[in-house]
Amino acid sequence: xxxxxxxxxxxxxxxxxxxxxxxxxxxxxxxxxxxxxxxxxxxxxxxxxxxxxxxxxxxxxxxxxxxxxxxxxxxxxxxxxxxxxxxxxxxxxxxxxxxxxxxxxxxxxxxxxxxxxxxxxxxxxxxxxxxxxxxxxxxxxxxxxxxxxxxxxxxxxxxxxxxxxxxxxxxxxxxxxxxxxxxxxxxxxxxxxxxxxxxxxxxxxxxxxxxxxxxxxxxxxxxxxxxxxxxxxxxxxxxxxxxxxxxxxxxxxxxxxxxxxxxxxxxxxxxxxxxxxxxxxxxxxxxxxxxxxxxxxxxxxxxxxxxxxxxxxxxxxxxxxxxxxxxxxxxxxxxxxxxxxxxxxxxxxxxxxxxxxxxxxxxxxxxxxxxxxxxxxxxxxxxxxxxxxxxxxxxxxxxxxxxxxxxxxxxxxxxxxxxxxxxxxxxxxxxxxxxxxxxxxxxxxxxxxxxxxxxxxxxxxxxxxxxxxxxxxxxxxxxxxxxxxxxxxxxxxxxxxxxxxxxxxxxxxxxxxxxxxxxxxxxxxxxxxxxxxxxxxxxxxxxxxxxxxxxxxxxxxxxxxxxxxxxxxxxxxxxxxxxxxxxxxxxxxxxxxxxxxxxxxxxxxxxxxxxxxxxxxxxxxxxxxxxxxxxxxxxxxxxxxxxxxxxxxxxxxxxxxxxxxxxxxxxxxxxxxxxxxxxxxxxxxxxxxxxxxxxxxxxxxxxxxxxxxxxxxxxxxxxxxxxxxxxxxxxxxxxxxxxxxxxxxxxxxxxxxxxxxxxxxxxxxxxxxxxxxxxxxxxxxxxxxxxxx
Amino acid sequence: xxxxxxxxxxxxxxxxxxxxxxxxxxxxxxxxxxxxxxxxxxxxxxxxxxxxxxxxxxxxxxxxxxxxxxxxxxxxxxxxxxxxxxxxxxxxxxxxxxxxxxxxxxxxxxxxxxxxxxxxxxxxxxxxxxxxxxxxxxxxxxxxxxxxxxxxxxxxxxxxxxxxxxxxxxxxxxxxxxxxxxxxxxxxxxxxxxxxxxxxxxxxxxxxxxxxxxxxxxxxxxxxxxxxxxxxxxxxxxxxxxxxxxxxxxxxxxxxxxxxxxxxxxxxxxxxxxxxxxxxxxxxxxxxxxxxxxxxxxxxxxxxxxxxxxxxxxxxxxxxxxxxxxxxxxxxxxxxxxxxxxxxxxxxxxxxxxxxxxxxxxxxxxxxxxxxxxxxxxxxxxxxxxxxxxxxxxxxxxxxxxxxxxxxxxxxxxxxxxxx
Lengths: 789, 420
Hints:
The structure holds two protein chains of two kinds. By secondary structure, chain A is of the alpha+beta class. Chain A is 52% helix and 9% strand. Chain A is globular, with a radius of gyration of 28 Å. Chain A starts with 46 loop residues before the first helix and ends in a 5-residue tail after the last strand. By secondary structure, chain B is mainly alpha-helical. The interface between A and B is medium-sized, with 25 and 24 residues.
């Protein structure tokens, strides 16, 4: 078969035998407590297993993910400024960097360990008392760190403190029941053991920051699936989600940490606790493998090799060396790595495809095209050598993109040589049209308009920064656009928030204001963190802190069309895609709106430091064991004041509710999609890492019904509350704290227990769901500032 | 080279080396102001000033390189004479550059404590906002602002865009001096910002022409005198549209220095005679707001300073001026001008927004949150300045509380502005 491709005519290739992936059979790792409840072959779920899973949900805290992410960013900043790690990469370098970062985090480890020890001692002293939950909170809250912690350490400390409360409360409950070692030993000694977990936790933070290959963890569900049959189904759904793109690096660190904590708390004997602690210390023993840095090195070698190619010389051997280095850095790369023949074929074909672009006879034309496409807009003082380098890098980016697309190809394509050949050529065309400037004759583009993604903005996606380590791609053209209310209302950013709302709350744009903006476009490559972009780009005038990656918005088709009039510059975005700002997928595209004269709004923290103001956010907690639903609606300062003014004027409450309705509806929609940090499910059959799978596995009618019920309960409750207690809102809004939090507690919601069954995989009739009418009691509390649990 | 040449050369080399080294040492900006002092500026402001100062220093050092090359190449009496002249020029340039550096260093170093830093950051923001509200409408770029504290009675400005002491560089920031006594009543800031705005849009000369032609029916010399005061009238009007009566009361308190100063008329001084200047500002209030607390202020002012106390040469100017104050206010605030894109100052910044009734209504509608919510402090900072100034001027019993309130919101505003 011969496939015609605009970039090259490629002859068919000889049939190859494809290595099949050997499915890894892994042995479940038992959690210590499970040994007591050996499976009896029945589909019975033992109560302690359920309690263990519930505890994993309770303790999981998305804000802890944020805190860990900030520490990762801090570590990256340190090692990038203090050590030239560009191409050291030796074991000694790795050792030095880890030591340097360990030293940096050592005060935090010390402070946190002291904290846990002090709390453990306090509980030890009061081992004969029955402590209430509020007494536990009090003991933990009154502890003050011995020194002023920097903001990221402080946030970590706060999250540990919050987690410790949950641990202590659960430990107390278990002790009361007389099960687990906690009952025999008392809470103090158990808590004291947990302090040892802090060091490995921060070790994982360091390893993530320096791009070390993370340890392979056994999914917790696999260890529990024998006990909770439903988990198996959710895990399958989750594996599908994993393949379709959702995986959060820092969340995995937290899952691992929480598991160690839970296993210690639920252990039956002190020996089991000690074994768990010993296992947690294994974290440092991961091999010195740095997939991203290895890719950087391989890329640099390839750049040099391609630049030095002689006329007519074949680039294929160099591509063959390069392709295997890409795979470990890709999420699904290992799938391909096991298929050596596919990899060889791919490298071979890519080598042929590149022949038209490399070598002294072709590179100058590509360099000229790169310059014409705006190289100097992103690299001001580019020399002729830089032009050649940029052209070669663009070709390599094309290779990397092609390999990524092939790695994501369905199995049946990888298994079929003819299909694979066609797929590779198509992937190459797609990749080339994104990474290379217009290099083909004009008539080719007329014939194949799909090869030119941007119709008017003639640019290319340049790997950035210009040095040897590449962290992201930037589109060479920076578009100027006029932002008007219509555009801003039509474009949505994370969580379905209209861009207008974002800019009003984040940057103090007046509603209805028209402003000029510059649109900077970015694309994630292997290893990209959004904070890398903020740290590396000088144009982030609107933001002061590298962790302020909230200014990077997902480039949806609507955004690309309305802002740039170039819808095809957006990557195809999956409907209902959940964007996780911590772990962008390779190929995800983002934009930053640079608005001259505008920057992030700030507020003074309680400690007198200037911090970024929070924007409106919503959090839904489905607490099945507690038989209640809790909702935290945080309103930004501007929104809180808008409502407060209406209430002060004694305006009709409906007036205030109309505005609030948008936030509730939007929040519920986002929570039901499982957006990052918007939904927490405390349930005996769902572990946090599978929450998204569990939600997606629900019959679609179920979230719809839940959403509409919640909307009704919340808004009716709120309307009544504001009629009766407007002064509570007004008083909270007069506080100097940033914004206000409205907490809704819905006790014994109708249909909640049916939903609990559905989450366990029990199928209920629609009629039984619909029967669950009724209006539960909605308790509302309004707090100044931000509240989280 | 003969012996005398050698001696001359030696003397010159020593001096050249001295000045060249001195110029090189200027590069360490942390010796001018401590790194903590630099860190007390907002990020963009600190960077902008440092970048500017480094430019000035590098220019000087480029000249130093030339001077050094010249002395190395010199081998004749004539050449030594030329080098000597170059050396004198360089010394002068050095002194002028040092004056520029010292000015900014002194300004930066006034941020001595967290509290003063907070106030001054708030002042930077207030001044910037007052300018940007007008300049944005005219599509003009607003310069960044550096405020600093100094002794004295009145505020002053070193305008952005002006050539500085070193003779080559252009001032990148509007540097506004605020006096210590007025730190918590900083409407003078807005007056100084008015000077910057007027400079940027060429308002002063247009206002001068408008006054001259609009007052041409006045007795001889009156129109010309008022035209010569146009820059101060413009700045007063700018402060008035942003802060209303607060700026009038503050101006009164600053110029109320006894009959000699109140009636002093110095030809060529851009400041109007204080006596008539206060009354002009009162007229602004009256024309836009009707009756109000300014009526009492005017009454007392006239009681304290009977017009006949002025010197004989000045009294007729003042008497003739009293009649034309409404006309002057009308020309200044309501006349369409090219500088304002064919509109008037009050079209662009409506003084109604800071009318006492409007301000008090805002206070009543927003309640305590107006002074505690960062949203209101950020969006309404200029009107908060106007309101607090109004309340301080009219509510003597609560003066201490009001000043505390002003301190709180200004510190809150200043504290949120990121340090470098």
